[in-house]
Amino acid sequence: MLLVFPLETKxxxxxxxxxxxxxxxxxxxxxxxxxxxxxxxxxxxGAYYAQSGLAAIELPHYLGWLxxxxxxxxxxxxxxxxxxxxxxxxxxxxxxxxxxxxxxFRAELDAGRLLRSDDPDHARWRELRQRLVELRGNEFTRxxxxxxxxxxxxxxxxxxxxHGSTMHLVGNMIFLFxxxxxxxxxxxxxxxxxxxxLAGMGGELGDLLARWGSIVPGLGASGAVSGLMAxxxxxxxxxxxxxxxxxxxxxxxxxxxxxxxxPLWMGFELYAHFAEAGSGIAxxxxxxxxASGALLMAGLRRLRPTVQAPLRPEAVPxxxxxxxxxxxxxxxxxxxDDARKLWGELSAERPRxxxxxxxxxxxxxxxxxxxxxxxxxxxxxxxxxNAVTPAQxxxxxxxxxQLARPRPLLKPEAAARLALRLARLGETGxxxxxxxxxxRLGAGSPPPASDAPARLAIVSALLRSGRPAxxxxxxxxxxxxxxxxxxxxxxxxxxxxxxxA
Length: 501
What we know:
- The chain is mostly helical.
- Strands 1-2-3 form a 3-stranded antiparallel β-sheet.
- Helix 1 packs parallel to helix 10 and helix 20 packs antiparallel against helix 21.
C-alpha cells in the first residue's frame, strides 16, 4: 500500500475552491441519490430472485450458455456457479449480479432463444422475469458504468462519477479536495474542471484497454483524482514539497522534489496490476489517470508559462520581517546608528508595531540631540494602551521631558491629551509635567481643550491613591485655570465627598 498526502499548501477560504467543492458535491449526490436507490432496488430484486424460484429456472440455462462461450473467463464463472444453490439468497444474489453484467446472455434470454415458448417453465418464467424487471428499476449504475465488453464513449465520462461503496467515495473525495484546491488556485476553476474530466476519461480508457472484453463494470473517480495528483507534482516539478506518506507499515512526513512521486506512483500501479490481479482495484485506471494528468499539465506549462505552483503562506517571505531580522543583526553587531535608522524606517512603515517603535525609541534615546529622538517619542506616545505598558509610557514621557533638545516638539493639545491618558492610568507625576509643558508651549493662548479633563483626572487619581493634600493642590490649579468649567465643579464635589472642602 502506498499513500501520499500533500502538506504544501492550505485552502484560501477568502477565495474558496468552488469547482473542487462542486465536483465533490456532484459525486456525493450521485452516490447518495440514484446509486443508493439503485442498490436498494437490487437488494429487493435479489431477495425476490431467490424466493420466487426464478434463479432455479435461469441458472441451468446460464451455465449452459457460459460453457458454449469457450473462453477462460466464462469457464471460470461457470466453475464458480456450478455448485451454487439458487434458493440461497447469497448465491442467488451473486447469480443475479453476473446476469446483469452479461448483456449478451440477457439479450438471448429475452429474445426467447434460451428458454423457448414450448418449455414447460416458459409461462411461469415470463411472469417471474417481468416482476423482477419491475423490482429492479432503471439499473442506473449498470447503465452508466464503463464495461469493456460493450463500452460506449459516454460511459468513459459518466463512470467517473459513480462509486462502489461509501468508503470508495470518501477516499476519492478526500484526495480530490487535497489536490484539487491547490490546482484550482493555480489554474482557475474552469480549466481545473476541464482537466478533471479529461483525466477521468483517460483513466477509464486505461482501464478499458487493460480489461478489454471484460463484463465487469469499471467505475469511480480514482482515475480523475489520479490525474489531479499527476498534475500537482508536474506543476511543482523539482521544487521540494512537504508530504505525508504511508508505505506498508511505515509512515512519516518528509520533503522531496515533487516530480519524483510521478514515476513512483506509476510504477506502483503497474506492479499492483500484474502482481495483484483479481484484487478488484482498477490499477490501470489509476495509471491512465496519472499519464493523462502528467501530459495535461506538461502541455499547460508549455502553452501558459505563467501557470505557477502556489506557495504556502508561511513560505512567502515578508519583506518587512526580513528587514526586521536585519535590524536585529545590526543591533547585535553594535552598529547602533545603522540599526536606529532601519528601526526608524520600520516603525514609520508600521506605526502600530509596538516592538519596532520601542526598539527605535530605545536606540534614539541614546542620541537625544537628534531628530530621531523626537520622532521615536511621538510614535511611542501614539501606541494604544494595549500595546505599551504604563511603565514604558511613563519612562518615555520622563525621558522626553528631560532630554529633548532644544525643547520638546509636542503641541499643547497633544501634551494635554497625553497627560489625560496618563492621569487615567494613575500616573499623576508625568501627567502634571505634561500639563506644565502644555502651559509653557501655549503661553498667551487659551488652555487646550484636554487641559481641564486632564486636571480633573489628576484630582481623582490623587484621591484614589490617598494623597489628599496633593489632590487639594491640583484642584486649586484647576479652579485657577478653568473657574467656570464643569470639571471644576466636579473636582469640588470630589473634594467634598472626601471631606476636604
